[in-house]
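Changelog note: in this version the structure field was regenerated for every chain. One regenerated record is shown below for reference.
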Amino acid sequence: MSKNIVILGCGAAGLSAALSARKTDRNINIIVIDQEEYPAYSRCGLPFVIGGEIRDFNSLLTFSPSMYKMMRIDLRLRSKVIDIDSNSKTVVYIDHQNRKETLQYDSLILATGASPIIPSISGVNKRGVYVLRTINDCKAIVEALPSSRNAVIIGAGLIGLETADALYRRGLNVTVIEILPSIIRASLDEDMAEIVKSSIERKGVKILVNRHVDEITGSNRVDGIISNGEKFKADIVVLATGMKANTELANRIGIQTGITGAIKVNSRMETTIKDIYAAGDCVESNHMITGQSTLSQLGTTAVRQGRIAGINAAGGYAIFPGVLNSMVSRIFDLEVGTTGLNMIQAEKYGFKVLTGSVSWRTRAEYYPETKSIRVKLLFERGSLRIIGGQIIGGEFVAPHINSLALAIQAKMTVFDIVNLDTCYSPPLANTWSPIVLAAESALSKIRIT
């Protein structure tokens, strides 16, 4: 008799789990339940739809419905799970026709994702205030564009700045309000963040840090915000104040959550209840450098965790090694990427840090299309092992970040990186890699001291 795997959530983690389970066991029954009306799609692509670079929402869909049928994945959309009984191994849900259905499972995978954090600001429920998490959120913002001239983004993390970029491309006057002292603070050190901030401000976008939003104003519809007593016009306000793991179902059945508030899992993505796994934005991860629990609400993390959960739920064996929170984004004219720890995180976990930085060119200096790039590397002073990297540039940031992530996982030292055998061709790469030069900058500090 075939096993039943039930997956709650059809986002990146849920779909990855389903596909990996199918590859592991061709005969299992796979049922995926999700509240949304759309099957798996790229949430990371939503800002680029707002900006007009991607013109069709359907382009974001990972697979057509026929692909799910071909993979024998039973997809049940517009359905809400209302109960899980881990003793009888059943899931109860309400389907799109408001009927109550019960499913038996052998393995259950929670891929319930995360939801936007809504700050407690007066007026936050007014019309014209949006979050950006789903296709429907995105559609609502796009529909408001023709009648809008001014936008305020609350939050200067990646989603906030990508949305600011998108609205700027659509001709709106954009202001970004950030409560913290610098932008993208979860990833970038202040010196690197200032480069990005200055580049954005040269476009005419206002970025205000160390600022609270006191009130969102307007009668029935938003007309502005008040920050530190100062009024800013706004026809659109977008809340980009972080994501909270969806743990309601897990909490209801007694699955443990960790210090981050997300679901606690082991290296096989098993929760604290037998035969229940979890993956994606709803779980906490182990950081490869610190060994501590961290949130890694990235699409890349979700698909990797989903793969491990799917293999193990289907009877295979796989281990998730942890995360470095490697990310990359294009914000206005700059590519921004980070991996490993930044200075604040390194100091929090007791690392004494040696840094090396360099500003360089992406191609030969004389090549017409060369662009600038800035690399900052962090090394642990004792072992001289690389523990972090941040890169800002006009191009080629993603492959450099991937190289640094590999270097961190391989526990390479400053000496290893200085001696890297790198490639060169005038239209493709400079004679000296900026990563090697940044490592040399760090090494020179050792020699001086």
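Spot check on this record: The first strand starts at residue 4 and ends at 8. The chain has a mean pLDDT of 96.
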